[in-house]
Amino acid sequence: MADAPPSPPLLLASTSPQRKAILEQLHIPFDAIAPRYEEETRNGADALQVVREYAHGKARSVADQAEGRPVLGVDTAVVLEGRIFGKPATAGDAEQMLEELSGKTHVVVSGLCLLTPGWEDIEHEATQVAFRELTPRELGTYVATGEWEGRAGAYAIQGRGASLVRSIEGDYLNVVGLPAALLVRLLAERFSGVYGFG
Questions:
Q1: Which of 16, 75, 142, 176 has the largest CB neighbor count within 10 A?
Q2: Percent of the chain having pLDDT more than 70?
Q3: Which residues face 167 on adjacent strands?
Q4: Model pLDDT for residues 168-187, shown as the tens digit of each residue
Q5: Architecture of domain 10-190 in CATH?
Q6: pTM of whole model > 0.85?
C-alpha cells in the first residue's frame, strides 16, 4: 500500500517561538515567515475586532508567498475590564501591568485567520485567567526575571508566569499564544484527514 502524500505545510505568518512550538506539539507541518503588517495601537477599540483584524492582516500580508498552501495568521491580546494590555516597553510598564492584573480575572483573546486562494476563515477564542493577589516582592521578583519582555500582559503562563495564576477557564494554549482547539476544528472541517484531524 502506497504511503499517503505528505500534508502541505501551513504558512505561519509569525516568528513567535510559542506559536511554532504549539504547531510542532500538534504535529502540524508548517513554514514560518514574518508578516509584513503594521499593527496600529487603538485606544478604546473592541478587543475581539482588533485581534480578528490583525490576524487577517498578518495572513493576507504573506498570502502572495503561500504557493497555494493554507496561510495561518494569529493575534493575541490580554484584556482587563475592556482595556487591551499590549507588550510592555520597560520593566516599569511590566510591573504596572502585573499590579493591575493582580487579584483579578482577565481575558486572553486571540483572532485566528486561516486562508487559501479560495476562502478565508476568521474566528476568535477567549480564555479567562485569574491572577492571585501578588505582593510587591512577588511582582519585583517576577519582573526581574525578564520573562515579561515581548509578552502581551507582561507574563508567560508557560514559564515562571504560571506562578502568578490562580485559575484558568478555557484553552490553555490560547494563553500561550495560539488557540489550538480552534485551529484543530478548522483544519478538521476544511481539510478532513489531511492534517490528522477530522
A1: 75
A2: 96
A3: 130
A4: 999 999 999 999 999 999 99
A5: Alpha-Beta Complex (3.90)
A6: yes
